[in-house]
Amino acid sequence: MTDLSNPPRIERYVPVDHAKVDFAGGFWESWSKTVREVTVPSQHRRLDEERFLEVLNFDQPPGPLARPIQPSGLSMQHFFDSDFGKWIEAASYTLKAHPNPALQAKIDGIVEKLAHGQMADGYLNSWFIRREPDKRWTNLRDLHEMYSMGHLLEGAVAYFEATGKRAFLDVMIKAVDHIDATFGREPGKLRGYDAHEEIELALIKLYRVTKNPKHLKLAQYFVDERGQMPSYYDEEARRRGDDPANYHYQTYAYSQAHMPVREQTQVVGHAVRAMYLFSAMADLAYETSDLTLLAACDRLFDNLTGRQLYITGGLGPSGANEGFTREYDLPNETAYAETCAAVALAFWGHRMAQIELDSRFTDHVELAIFNGALSGIARDGEHYFYENVLESHGQHRRWKWHYCPCCPTNIARLIASLGSYFYTTKPDELVVHLYGANTAEAEIGGRIVQISQETSYPWDGDIALTLVPAAPMPFTLRLRMPGWCNKASVTVNGEGIDTAAAEKGYLAIARQWAAGDVVRISFDMPVERLYAHPLASEDAGRVALKRGPVVYCAEEADLGFVPQLLALPADAEIAAEFDPDLLGGAVRLSALATKTSDADWDGQLYRREQPKTQATRLNAIPYHLWANRQAGGMLVWLREK
Ligand SMILES: [Zn+2]
Fold first, then answer.
1. How far does residue 315's CA lie from ligand 1's centre (Å)?
2. CA–CA separation, 236 and 549 (whole Å)
3. Could you say which of 54, 121, 524, 623 would form a disulfide bridge with 553 (CB–CB 3.0 to 4.6 Å)?
4. How many Å apart are CA 16 and CA 431, to the nearest integer?
5. pLDDT given at position 71
6. What number is the average pLDDT over the span 80-103?
């Protein structure tokens, strides 16, 4: 746990741009290629086929709803803008390193329609402009207006950075000017904030492009105002003639608006909202050196990872509020663990590691990307999970599109920008956060350094990191020593480095670096048996298998029977072997195990005799690869006997 009486100072590391990181030859190569070549084009087709882009026909009457109104008063269609905003963002990330005029033309087509539909005062939201213009800004609690604009804004920033084209950015700056003129503490403005966080972190992205302090201050206002009492949502409901007591979700904890953000100690409510808020708080701490926000983030990160996180990096166990319930409530078969939430945990952890260099953040980024986030997309790049359960009897299958398709574009934008999670720099430092084959180019103190990692990580813990500065130069290389690793060795040009000197999980090597210097890193990567805290009672008597950052599961496709019948002896030796034919190539785990027989029960549900068991073989695959073959059961937490 962090010592909060002595909070650390704010660091300011700068991520190396994803377009400067090339995954050729490694684990992420096929994923990033699939996202670029299959996911992004297929998502545009889905947005079109499923009538999402239709909302941009501002000159036509709105027509029948593509999605009905829910009991909460919200139609998924209220926030269709967010879905193509996120799609533009993902597409823009792929464009940056791989120009594609046809893709650019599709984005330009959307931007043109948005610019055409934008109101004279800058307001921009397809639902309210076309369907309920008199209800603009009357229900921030339920209707996602600023959430949608935030995703358009993130899309606009990404598109500008990829292409240098300003049209979308200018549209969104005008929309932000309108928001700024409408909300704030000044007389005549509404003291509101959107219940679905997103605009906050988007405004900070905008600020980093424009350097206009107004954009940063607006983000700061939204974060500071959140949870102040009396609640804006009560006043707003009364203005609409509603009784605040009739609020569908009953508590503003659903939106992390139950108390000011700096007083929050437990991660509560809707999981994606929480992660977006905390990401914005980390960004604000970065930009403003606000230690009170850093302290709150530290505390909340520890609460999440110490008491509320699935072993896969999934989060938010309940479908009822798409979020958290009580601490240690981690059901497996009904786990909600939305893909968006694990993706957003990576967003948050990545930001935390830029202001506080501590591997506990990056360890969880890595956990999410290799497990609970990556499980959200199929190997074919066009089928998805919304919920990432840890146990199935075969009823969970991937879908082509979703009623509420927030997750597909979210996992796409994470993978399309994943390069930016690998390295950060300061004028005299290079930090290596993640491992995996890539070549990259970083700027350290104004000078270019070529970097390459040769490795088959995560299938193997050996990495050869080669540095090629244009001319010899001194800087400190910091290597993340993953929290999952108990034994590591590091050499520089063959000379051993004391890994025990690592601080907060980062090993510093300060020296003069010259072209061709090779750092060899070896992380011992045995198969580990992990057990859950006793209060996570769903996992009692069970064991999970993990090797390096990769969590494993047993799947019926390998066993030939539902994995719920399997038990792993406590002393069973577990072998790990790379199988090039396993779902694109992966390490498979195997062990002697037992199967409980369900064959001789003669129609009984209960009986006096213990069930019979027989020897069998456990074959376990990486969790993120499940549900890519025939339908069947799956289990992460195996019975141990
Ligand atoms: Zn989602």
1. 12
2. 46
3. 623
4. 10
5. 86
6. 97
Q: β-pairing, 575-579 with 586-596? A: antiparallel
CA-based R_g, the chain, Å: 25
DSSP letters along 551-566, please? EEEEEHHHHSS-GGGE
Phi then psi dihedrals of residue 472, to 5 deg: -55, 140
SS3 at position 514: coil
Ligand 1 centroid to Cα of residue 425, in Å, is 31
CB atoms within 10 A of CB 254: 22
Where do we find the tokens 């009692």?
540
Please tell me the distance between residue 386's alpha carbon and the centre of ligand 1 in angstroms: 6
Token output for 324: 């958290």
Instruction: Compute, in angstroms, the gap from residue 320 CA to the centroid of ligand 1.
Output: 14
Running DSSP on this structure, what letter comes out for residue 612? P
Question: Which pair of tokens denotes residue 452?
Answer: 């390459």
Question: Cα(56)–Cα(544) distance, rounded to whole angstroms?
Answer: 47
pLDDT, residue 1, reads 45
DSSP state of 56: G
Q: Read off the tokens for 523.
A: 């992380």
Angle CA 444–287–349, to nearest 5: 75
Question: How many Cα atoms sit within 13 Å of 152 on the Cβ side?
Answer: 30
Say if CB 255 and CB 270 are below 8 A apart.
yes
Q: How far apart are CA 456 and CA 594, in angstroms?
A: 32
pLDDT score of 8 = 63
Ligand 1 centroid from CA 377, angstroms: 12
Taking each helix axis as running N to C, give the angle between helix 80-97 and helix 101-117, from 0 to 180 degrees, rounded to the nearest 10: 150
- Residues taking part in catalysis: 322, 406
Number of separate helices (H) and strands (E) present in the chain = 16, 22
299 contacts: CB under 8 Å, gap ≥ 6: 2, 4, 265
Angstrom CA distances, 120 to 145, 203, 301, 512, stand at 17, 21, 42, 58
Of 402, 363, 407, the residue nearest 388 (C-alpha): 407
Q: For 253-291, what is each residue's pLDDT tens digit?
A: 999 999 999 999 999 999 999 999 999 999 999 999 999
The pTM of this model reads: 0.98
Distance CA 192, CA 141 (A): 9
User: Can you tell me whether residue 244 is helix, strand or coil?
Assistant: helix
User: CB 282: neighbour CB atoms within 10 A?
Assistant: 29
Q: Which are the contacts of 348, defined by CB distance < 8 A and separation ≥ 6?
A: 275, 278, 279, 282, 297, 301
Whether the predicted pLDDT of 6 surpasses 80 = no
Torsional sign, CA 313, 317, 320, 321: negative
Helix axes 27-34, 406-416, angle to 10 degrees: 130
Burial zone of 100 (CB within 10 Å; 0-12 exposed, 13-18 middle, 19+ buried): middle
pLDDT at 4 over 60: no
Burial of 66 (0-12, 13-18, 19+ CB in 10 A): middle
263: CA distance to ligand 1 center in Å? 27
Give ∠ CA 409-414-420 in degrees, rounded to 5: 150
Residues 242-251: pLDDT tens digits?
999 999 999 9
Q: Which two tokens mark 212?
A: 């206009």
Q: Residues 563, 635: contact at Cβ < 8 Å?
A: yes
Measured over the CA atoms of residue 261, residue 263, residue 269 and residue 272, the dihedral's sign is: positive
Query: Residue 616 CA to chain centroid, in angstroms?
Result: 37
